[in-house]
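Summary for the steering committee. The consortium agreed at its last meeting that each partner would contribute one worked example illustrating the joint modelling workflow. Our contribution is presented below. We chose a case with several input lines so that the handling of multiple components could be demonstrated. No manual editing was applied between input and output; the record is shown as generated.
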Amino acid sequence: MEPSDEALCERVAKRDEAAFDLLVARYQERAYRLAWSMLRNAEDARDVSQEAFIRLYEAAGSFGGRSKFSTWFYRILVNLCLDHKRKHRWWKLWVRDEGDDRTDPILDRQPAPVIDPVDKLSRERTMKELGAAVDRLAPRQRAAVLLRVQEDLATYEIAKVLKCSEATVRVHLHRALTTLKKTVEKR
Amino acid sequence: MAKHPDTDLVPYLRGELPPVDRERVARHLEECPDCRQDTEQLRDLLGQLSRSIGQPPRVNWAHYRAELREKLEARRGRRVWWWRPAPLVLSASVAGALLLLLVAVWGGRETSTGADPFALEEAAIGRQLGLLQEYQVVERLDLLEDLDVISDLDGLASGRQG
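What follows is the complete predicted structure of the assembly.
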C-alpha cells in the first residue's frame, strides 16, 4: 500500500530522503501549476514551487498533522507566491516581464479543442478575457479562485491555506466571481 | 423575502453547506428569480474558469527534481557554514566567561585575604556611608569637581566647621 502524504512528511522530518523524493514526485505538477497560475511566469513558477519543497523539507517537523498534508503544503506555496507577487509588484510596473506567459496565445494552453466552429472565435476571446481578468484579481481573491477551480479545494481547506475564516473565503470568492461575471457579461 | 444568500451560492453549488443552510438557500432560490439566474451564471462561470486558466508550459520533471536537489544541497551547505562556527563561538564565550570569573575570584582573594566576600561588600558600603554623612558638602559640589576633593571630604568638612 502507498504511504500517505502525512506518513511521508513524518519521514521527511526524520530526514528520509526517499520520502522527500516521493512527496516531490506526487506534488511537483500541482505545485508548479498552481504557482504558474498565480504568477503567470514559468521561470518564477519553477523557482517558487521548488522553494516550497525546500521549505517543506526544512519545516516537515513542524507539520502537526492537524490538517491534511496537502493543505499545509498549499499554504507554504501560496504564501510564497503572494510574497513573490508583493516583492515584484513595483518592479513589474516599470519593466514588462518579457517572460510573462500571458503573452502566449491562450489557445496553446487549452487542454481540449473547441468543437463548435461557429462560435469558436467568440469562445476563444471570452476565455482569453476571462483568463486575463483572473490575472487582474486581487492576490488573495485570485488564490481563492485558483484553489477552488484548479485544485478543487473545499471552502474550509481554502480557509486553512489562506489562514482566514470560511466566511472570508466566501466573500473572496463572491467578489472575485462577481468581477469575473462582469467580464463575461460585457461580451 | 430574506436577504439574498450571495456568498452562500458557491458553497451551495459545491454541496458544502450544512443541511439547514442548504435548505434555506434552496427555498430562497425557489422564490428569487435573480438569485436563481445568478446561480446558473456562477455554475457556467466556474466551468469556464477551469478552462480559461489554462495549462502552464511543459516542464522536464527529471530536470526539475535535479535542480531542486541542487538547491536543497546548496541550502544545506549554507546552513552548515552558519552552524559550524556556532559551537566555536559558544565555547569561546564560555571560556571567556570562565576566565573572567576566575580573575574576579582570584583578585577578590588577594584583596580580601581570605575574608567572606559578603563581609567585604558590607565594608565597602560602610566606607561610602561616610560620604553620606557629609551629604551637604557633596550637594554643594559641582558635578565636574575634582575627584580629589571628594576623597578629602573629611578634611573639607572639618575646615568648614573650623
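The radius of gyration of chain B is 42 Å. Chain B touches chain A at residues 6-11, 14, 16, 41-42, 45-46, 48-57, 59, 61, 64-65, 67-68, 71-72, 75 (CB under 8 Å).
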